[in-house]
Every structure is written in structure tokens, then in C-alpha cells.
Amino acid sequence: MAPRFITRRGHKLGLPPGSLVPVEVPTLERVQLTVMDYDAQRLEELEIASVEECLPFRDSPTVTWLDVVGLQDMELIARLGSEFGLHPLVLEDLVNTEQRPKLEDFQDYLFMVMKMITFSEESHRVEDEQVSLILGPRFVISFQERPGDIFGSVRERIRTGKGRIRTMGPDYLAYSLMDAVVDHYFAVLEGVGEWIEELEDEVVTEPVPSTMEEIHRVKREMLLLRKATWPLREVVSSLGREGTSLVTAPVRIYVRDIYDHTIQVLDTGETLRDIVSGLLDTYLSSVSNRMNEIMKVLTIMASIFIPLTFVAGVYGMNFQHMPELALPWAYPAVLVLMLVIGLGLLAYFRRKGWL
After folding, report:
1. What is the number of other CB atoms lying within 10 angstroms of the CB of residue 45?
2. Given CA atoms 76, 79, 80, 81 in this order, what sign does their dihedral have?
3. Can you give the pLDDT at residue 95?
């Protein structure tokens, strides 16, 4: 299995810039295309089979959201880029899912890359998926690697007309999609935090060798989360500045709210990273304390049996002239002496606080 934090670009060696080469193994038989076209009065939602079917919505005065799920059809991606005037390097970044979060302004449209993060409580694994957004004058195109996302609440708001999304432009739709991604980071951090709490209890009560492996695992997952969220701060900050007419002034206020949420995510993530780093020290201390307890018990046992071994050794010698050997009560007397010595040492250790 390839390392999760190493970008593999060997498949692009020798190819010109803008070449469309999928990185991931296809997970769908075909790319899924969904269109939501709406304004304040009407909504049209449909699944389409080709790029040509969405072209009537491209220049309509309404807001159009084209959701593309699956990146394995290079011909479809190229056709989509040609019809919407996307730069070849943008198409290359769409299918290369190892991109870091970024924002690029092409005057006629904005290109944004984000990481959608999910956390599995069963396997304790953080999974990331690249989500790319194209924000145009009257449309938003979203690209996802595989089915299943966190945009259900956005779709529901569009269908029911809740909030202001139906009365705003495509920039507000792009904001809503970004906000859904960032808000889901908090759910991921909550799941990771519960995992860390379980590790804390295990480290304090009964640390085992597998605990060390779990600590290193959670550190790796936190690193993946950090790689997804840290560059996002600059993306949101750039989007909130006055530098493009595609993002209106009212929407910039909401974008600044995403920036605040991103900072909270980063602060929480750094706090969890510090806790995980402290877990390693706690684990080593717990193991050391446990070993000290074991050594203390063994030392006390050895200290008790040393004088008993001495007594038994003395009377185990085969000298002929040993007066006690001839006495009828010598054997029980020696046993009583050994018992008194053992009990006396136990009382002494307890009084000293060693037991």
C-alpha cells in the first residue's frame, strides 16, 4: 500500500502540461451529472447523460449548479472544459486529486480546490476527497471523486426555498458549498476527539503495546486533517478580499464567517495535536510507573526471602557439631523464627510506605 502522504506524479512524466490523466481507479461505471437550475420562483432539477444536455442552462439568467461525480471519463471532462471555457491546466488539476486547497482567478471564473473530510468511527480512519468548484457569472460546477457527499442540506434548502439561497446569485451557492465542507470538519474533529479520549483512558488505566500503535495512528490522521485545513485558510481569505466581481459584497460577509470557522478548525486541530503529543509522554510514564510497581513487588519479595534463605542455608549445612540439630523442638523453632522474620519485614515495609 502506497504511503498516504506522498504525492505520486510518476504517471505524468513526459506528458505536456494540461494532459488529462486520472490518478484514482474509477469507482463508477459512468460519470454522474446532476443539474439544479433555479431562481426565486422556479426550480428545475434533473439528471443528465451528456454535456450537451446542460448547455441550455449555461447562459440562462437563472443560477445553475452542475454537479459532476466521478473523474474517470477524460473525454467528458475535456468536453465540459471546452464548452465552459476552462483552461487546460484547470482540467488537469480537476482530475489530479492530489491538489492542495487553492484558489485561482481566471477573470471569467474562479477555480477552487477543497478537501472534503470524513471520519469512520468503526475503523478510526480519516478519509479525504477532493472537491473542485468552478464559479462562473451564472453557474457553479462542482467536481467530486465518488458518490456520497455532505451537500444534502444545500440541495434541501434549494428545493424548499429555505433561507436566502434561492434569491442570491451563484457566489452565494459557492459559499454554501464551501460552508458545508468547513462545517463538516467540526464533526470530524469531534469524532477524532472522542477517539483521543478513549486513548487517554487506556493510557492511564491499562497501557498495552497496541496503545502505542494507536497513538501513532491518530497522529497520522491528524496530519492528514491538518494538510486539508491549513491551506484552506488562505483560500477563504483570498475569496473574501475585494478582487473579483464574481463575489459580491454581501457574499463576502458570509465568506468572512467561513474564515472564522476555518480558524476555529485550525485551533481545535492544533489543540488535539498537542494532546496526542502529550499522550505519548503519558504512555511512556504509565509504562515506566507500571514497571516500577512490578520491580518494587519483586524487590520486596526478594528482601523478605533473603533472610529466610540465610536461616535455611545455615541449618542446611552438614556440620556434625551443631547443638540445635539435636534438640527435639529445633525444627518448629526455626520455622517460627522464619515466619517472625517475614512478618516483621512486611510490617516494616508497610510502616515505611513501600507497600
Report:
1. 13
2. positive
3. 87
| Cα–Cα distance, 222 to 269 (Å, whole number) | 7
Q: Which three cell numbers stand for residue 39?
A: 431562481
3-class secondary-structure state, position 316: coil
Largest Cα span, the chain: 120
Band (pLDDT 50/70/90 cuts) for residue 34 is very high
Nearest to 308 by CA among 348, 336, 349: 336
CA angle 94, 99, 105 (to 5 degrees): 65
DSSP assignment of 258-302: HHHHHHHHHHHHHHHHHHHHHHHHHHHHHHHHHHHHHHHHHHHHH
> What is the pTM (predicted TM-score) of this model?
0.77
**What's the residue count for the chain?**
355
Give which of 132, 149, 128, 52 is closest to 92, Cα–Cα: 132
- Amino acid symbol at 59: D
- What is the arrangement of strands in the sheet containing 139-144, beginning at the earlier edge strand? 43-48, 32-38, 63-69, 139-144, 125-135, 110-120, 102-105
Chain centre to alpha carbon of residue 279: 17
Nearest to 111 by CA among 88, 129, 81, 136: 136
Asked whether 112 and 174 are in contact (CB, 8 A), the reply is: yes
Torsion sign across C-alpha atoms 312, 318, 324, 327: positive
Environment class of 8 (CB within 10 Å of its CB; exposed 0-12, middle 13-18, buried 19+):
exposed
